[in-house]
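SEVERITY: medium
COMPONENT: batch folding queue
REPORTER: lab tech (J.R.)

DESCRIPTION
The queue accepted two submissions in a row. Attaching both inputs and their returned structure tokens so the on-call engineer can compare them side by side.

ATTACHMENT 1
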Amino acid sequence: MIGEVYIPRNSTTPAVCRKIIADWGNHEGLVLCYGDASGGSSGSAKVAGSDWALIRAELRSTFGNRLHFRVPDGNPKVRVRINAMNSRLKSASGEIRLMVDPVKAPNMVRDLEGVRALKGGSGEIDKAADPALSHISDALGYYIVKEFPIIKPMVGTGHAVWQ
């Protein structure tokens, strides 16, 4: 299950974790955490440690050893993440591979519908157009690029590389 936690003002990492526990504390399966490698080098992390340390401390008591982190050592390029998201939403052949419930995740829908690319850029997200947008869809993007990356084989090497 993918759900949404949205705190419009004065959100902190511990507040988000408390909301996760309130909404899904009875969940009995694995709890997988995805995100960016920087772990939030600003905000609450400045005072109490990295955001990943805060998340681990807040969620471990509720979810125990079912809590797993799937955070990359380095962040993929924005364009790679966007391509993976777009491909997952709708493939080149027109197959819809990801749907978002507008009742359970209305802010994700608003974000996905509202985020735009920079005009004249090479696909970068225009974060200045509406500062309230892109954060929640970026979060989904880290999950998508980790679990459903777009890779292509390097001819003759047997290795794959990010698009």
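ATTACHMENT 2
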Amino acid sequence: MLTRSLLVALAALTLTPPVPALADPGHGAARAYGEPGSPKRSSRVVEIVMRESDGRMEFVPNRVAVRKGEQIRFVIRNEGELDHEMVVGTLAENLAHGESMRKNPDMEHDDPNARRLAPKGRDELVWRFTKAGEFDFSCLIPGHREAGMFGTVTVK
């Protein structure tokens, strides 16, 4: 009986498609929007608050201007009543990952470009923006981005 159960479990695992990672080709690899920063190097600090307000969910501020090559230490605080996350990426990557999160809402992350916080939680995300352009930061918990929880990083 145990052997049969193991075979059924093994078959289910091999037939289940893998859950995509959070747009991370390798922890530490460069991406279109930059690379993980070094906590040991100096950074400009940008404080980001996550909260719910008047039926909306939001990041405050929701716009950040950065110089190409600059390292930012995002100090993130969740002042809301719900879990929230901040995921830095391209808009296309974040939208695609948001779709994956809708299908797998309990997905856990261990990615240098993302932090998930419980209510009243605080964390830091250090990122070096190596390429010019407009990039996205979003809360990809199902329904949160749609409720207004996204922002833009402009790198010049």
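NOTES FROM REPORTER
Residues 1-27 have pLDDT under 50 and may be disordered.
No errors were logged for either attachment.
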